[in-house]
Amino acid sequence: MVEMRLTGVKVELPTNTPVVLLQEVGGEQRTLPIFVGMPEATSMLQVLQGQVSPRPLTYDLFTSVLDDVGVRLERVAITDLRDGTYYAELHLIAGGARKIVSARPSDAVNLALRAGCPIVCDDDLLASEGVRYDPDEDAVQVSPDGEPQAEVLVDELKEWLEHIRPEDFG
Q1: What is the DSSP secondary structure assignment for residue 96, as one 8-state letter?
Q2: What is the pLDDT of residues 47-93, one digit of tens each?
Q3: DSSP letter at 26?
Q4: Domains of the chain, earliest start first
Q5: Rounded to whole angstroms, how far apart are CA atoms 119 and 2?
Q6: Residue limits of the BFN domain (predicted)?
C-alpha cells in the first residue's frame, strides 16, 4: 500500500464532474483521480477549508458515532478498480479486533479527513491508474457551495472567445 494525501477537489470541464485528486506521499508523486458526486466533493472541501457546520453533517455524525462506541478508523484504502468503479475499504479497530468494511472512495476519504487517519492506495492500482497531474489542464477549483470559482470560468470563457472560429458553429 502507498500512502496518499488529498491534494485537491476539482471540476473536470466540460462535463462539470467533480474529481478528487489523491497524490502519492513521497515516491513518484503520482496522482489518482477519482470522480465523485458533488455533495461528497463539497463535504471534502468544507473540511479542507476548515468550515464547521452548526449541526453535524452525515460524515461528522458517523465519525462521532465511531468515537462514542470505541471504534477507531485506522486507515482507509483505495483497493480496486472494476468496470470503471473504484472500491475502498475502511480499516477499523473495535475492541482490539480489526474489521474491514467496504466503502465508496468518496465516503472513505471524507471519513479519513474527519478522523485524521491515513489514506492508502493499492500499489498495483496506483501503478496502473496513477497519473502525473497538471493543474493547468481543463479543471477548475470548486468552491464550498459546489460551484466552480467564477474568476476561473471568466478566464476560460475569454480564452475560448479568443480562439473561436465560425466553423465551430457548424
Answers
A1: T
A2: 988 888 889 899 999 999 999 999 999 999 999 999 999 999 999 99
A3: S
A4: 2-169 (3.10.690.10)
A5: 8
A6: 1-133
Helices 38-48, 105-115: inter-axial angle, 10-degree rounding: 20
Interhelix angle 105-115/58-68, rounded to 10 degrees, is 60
Which helix (H) or strand (E) segment holds residue 61: the answer is: helix 58-68
pTM above 0.90, yes or no: no
C-alpha cell at 10: 476539482
* Cell numbers given for 45: 472541501
DSSP 122: -
Joined together, the cell numbers standing for residue 49 give 477549508
Which is nearest to 115 in space by CA: 59, 170, 43? 59
CA atoms 123, 128, 129, 134: torsion sign: positive
Residue type, 161: L
What's the sign of the alpha-carbon dihedral 77, 78, 80, 82? Answer: positive
